[in-house]
């Protein structure tokens, strides 16, 4: 079976993700994964990297790196205050609040 | 013989820009608002909100880059620096990694050891984080996002500094340049200028750098100097004991004069930067760059050279006067009005600095108008008031920006030039102090000073001491 990324489902993956890597990526992303989910994630990331390997086969020397998909640049604001005090609306999104501030679990310095 | 060590220092300096609004939204940057009153969906990272770049931020960054001899990346863009911490509501900070706006510059510093150029690796634009306050009563932290999204530039130096003197000279130079550009007030204590110190040691003669540490929480020049000496000693001790220096971020405790490893967000140094898809690239045309270049004000180094050429004042005075742009502006405007640079300089170097020190104020906080100082100088020059009264009047100019002419008029401080009046008072003083008169006649010159003082007192300071002196001598024969 050929999937949409052009890499066949059954093919042996070139990129094998180790348990340590998936653990580390999980910590960076603040994700707690079950063993089952870890295996699935290892498989998915491996296939993504295989796809990137395939893209890397293209000769891109002499091609300017793309910074943005839209051919647009210089979208600016003038330095003028346009927002007023909307604290109540903003704090409506806070899980908890205290003294006009977002209340969060204690952070250790 | 004991090993000789060399300290290698590079700085990351964050400067809060003096824009009215945040870098990506129209919220005010005013300091001191009640918590979260300067926030909106953009600077609190609400899903679906879109950042739009403040043009003034780009112009300030360009101005600082040009003034520090940097190259400008005329095509630059923003990247996301990913980390989780409650002061950062988006879970990423918008910064510039791949194409920072300025690169490869440098500034010349001068220390007792001579002149030296400190290289600037790059300057990039980014947003500040919110402020976390640890609650005193509950086991929680409170977040205020008023500072979230306030524009910063980060000036990254090359590892070109070797001791605290060079670091202080470099910071002072940067501060002066940025202040002159009006891009920031650069106050270390208030956090509008923050310096992180990257430091390593190596044996003298070694080409290879040692392992470096990064120190944070340095909020005065003195703390920076102490932190450098403390960290150098700590690293040398480790090396002498054969232990490795660990590459880490440390927090300087200025009371204990020791640095401690920081935990929290600095743990993961893997920020997984990637281009921010919400922001389109910035393209700086030659015309735009030239327009910013044309608007650059005279910087301190140029000003000092001009003062030497134009005004007859000592180099030392010129150095002090130009240390603050506000002071230099007052000097120039007052001089333009009264045409007496030496007198203006004396008032600024003398009474002004004395009162600033007394009030624990910075020259930038000076609030009096040059026109009033110029008037005061003219009043003294014309003999309308004497030097003692002038000092009293100056205090009112300094504190209340009082109009000296009016003040002198209203308080009847004009020097009495009426000879009859003066003579009458002097005669009274002579009659009331027979002993001093006898002393003077007996050859004690000091007694004359006492009589002059008594006369000035009787005249409530409104006499010309020279004239009193002369009159007394005449009358006492």
Description:
The complex is a heterodimer of chains A (109) and B (477). By secondary structure, chain A is mostly helical. Chain A has a domain at 1-58. Helix content of chain A is 34%, strand content 8%. The N and C termini of chain A lie far apart (53 Å). The model of chain A has no long low-confidence stretch (mean pLDDT 87). Chain B is of the alpha+beta class. Chain B has three domains: 5-287, no CATH class; 306-410, no CATH class; 419-476, Arc Repressor Mutant, subunit A, CATH 1.10.10. Chain B is 40% helix and 20% strand. Chain B is built from 15 helices and 17 strands. Chain B has helices spanning 55-67, 164-181, 221-240, 286-295, 300-310, 315-321, 325-338, 341-359, 370-381, 387-400, 404-410, 419-432, 434-441, 446-458, 465-476; strands spanning 5-16, 53-54, 71-72, 75-76, 79-82, 92-95, 102-111, 114-127, 131-134, 140-144, 151-157, 193-203, 213-216, 249-253, 258-261, 274-275, 282-283. Chain B has a nine-stranded mixed β-sheet with strand order 3-7-8-11-1-12-13-14-15. In chain B, strands 6-5-16 form a three-stranded antiparallel β-sheet, with no helix packed on it. Chain B has a two-stranded antiparallel ribbon with strand order 4-17. In chain B, helix 12 (419-432) crosses helix 14 (446-458). The longest helix of chain B is centred in the middle third of the chain and has 20 residues, at 221-240. The relative contact order of chain B is 0.09. The model of chain B has no long low-confidence stretch (mean pLDDT 91). Classes of the chains: A mainly alpha (109), B alpha+beta (477). Chains A and B meet through strand 1, helix 3 and strand 3 of A and strand 2, helix 1, strand 9, strand 10 and strand 17 of B. Strand 3 (101-105) of chain A pairs antiparallel with strand 10 of chain B, so a sheet runs across the interface.
């Amino acid at each position: 079976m050929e999937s949409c990324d052009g890499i066949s489902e059954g093919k042996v993956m070139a990129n094998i993700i180790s348990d340590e890597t998936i653990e580390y990526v999980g910590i960076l992303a603040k994700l707690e994964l079950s063993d089952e989910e870890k295996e699935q994630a290892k498989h998915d990331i491996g296939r993504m990297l295989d796809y990137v390997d395939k893209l890397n086969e293209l000769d891109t020397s002499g091609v300017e790196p793309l910074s943005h998909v839209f051919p647009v640049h210089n979208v600016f604001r003038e330095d003028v205050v346009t927002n007023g005090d909307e604290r109540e609306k903003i704090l409506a999104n806070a899980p908890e609040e205290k003294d006009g501030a977002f209340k969060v679990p204690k952070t250790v310095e | 013989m004991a090993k000789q060590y060399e300290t290698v220092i590079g700085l990351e300096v964050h400067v809060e820009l003096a824009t009215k609004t945040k870098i990506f939204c129209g919220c005010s940057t005013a300091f001191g608002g009640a918590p979260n009153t300067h926030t909106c969906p953009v600077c609190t990272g609400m899903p679906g909100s879109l950042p739009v770049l403040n043009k003034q931020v780009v112009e300030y960054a360009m101005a600082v880059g040009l003034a520090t001899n940097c190259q400008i990346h005329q095509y630059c863009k923003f990247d996301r620096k990913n980390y989780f911490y409650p002061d950062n509501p988006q879970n990423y900070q918008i910064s510039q990694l791949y194409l920072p706006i300025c690169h490869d510059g440098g500034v010349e510093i001068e220390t007792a050891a001579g002149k030296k150029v400190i290289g600037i690796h790059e300057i990039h634009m980014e947003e500040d984080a919110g402020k976390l306050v640890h609650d005193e009563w509950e086991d929680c932290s409170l977040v205020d996002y008023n500072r979230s999204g306030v524009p910063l530039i980060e000036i990254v130096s090359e590892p070109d500094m070797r001791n605290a003197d060079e670091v202080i000279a470099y910071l002072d130079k940067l501060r002066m340049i940025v202040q002159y550009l009006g891009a920031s007030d650069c106050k270390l204590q208030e956090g509008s200028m923050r310096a992180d110190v990257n430091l390593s040691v190596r044996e003298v003669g070694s080409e290879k750098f040692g392992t470096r540490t990064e120190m944070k929480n340095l909020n005065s020049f003195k703390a920076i100097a102490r932190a450098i000496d403390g960290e150098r000693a700590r690293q040398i001790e480790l090396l002498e004991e054969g232990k490795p220096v660990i590459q880490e971020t440390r927090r300087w405790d200025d009371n204990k004069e020791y640095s401690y490893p920081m935990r929290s967000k600095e743990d993961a140094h893997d920020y997984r930067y990637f281009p921010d898809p919400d922001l389109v690239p910035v393209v700086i045309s030659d015309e735009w760059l030239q327009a910013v270049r044309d608007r650059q004000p005279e910087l301190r180094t140029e000003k000092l050279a001009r003062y030497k050429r134009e005004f007859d004042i000592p180099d030392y005075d010129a150095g002090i006067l130009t240390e603050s742009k506000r002071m230099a502006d007052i000097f120039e405007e007052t001089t333009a009005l009264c045409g007496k640079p030496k007198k203006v300089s004396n008032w600024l170097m003398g009474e002004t600095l004395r009162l600033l020190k007394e009030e624990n104020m910075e020259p930038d906080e000076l609030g009096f108008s040059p026109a009033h100082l110029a008037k005061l100088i003219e009043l003294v020059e014309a003999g309308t008031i004497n030097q003692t009264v002038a000092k009293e009047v100056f205090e009112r100019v300094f504190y209340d920006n009082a109009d000296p002419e009016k003040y002198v008029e209203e308080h009847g401080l004009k020097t009495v030039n009426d000879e009859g009046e003066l003579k009458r008072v002097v005669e009274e003083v002579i009659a009331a102090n027979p002993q001093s008169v006898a002393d003077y006649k007996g050859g004690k010159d000091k007694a004359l000073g006492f009589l002059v003082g008594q006369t000035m007192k009787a005249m409530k300071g409104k006499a010309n001491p020279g004239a009193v002196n002369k009159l007394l001598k005449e009358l006492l024969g």
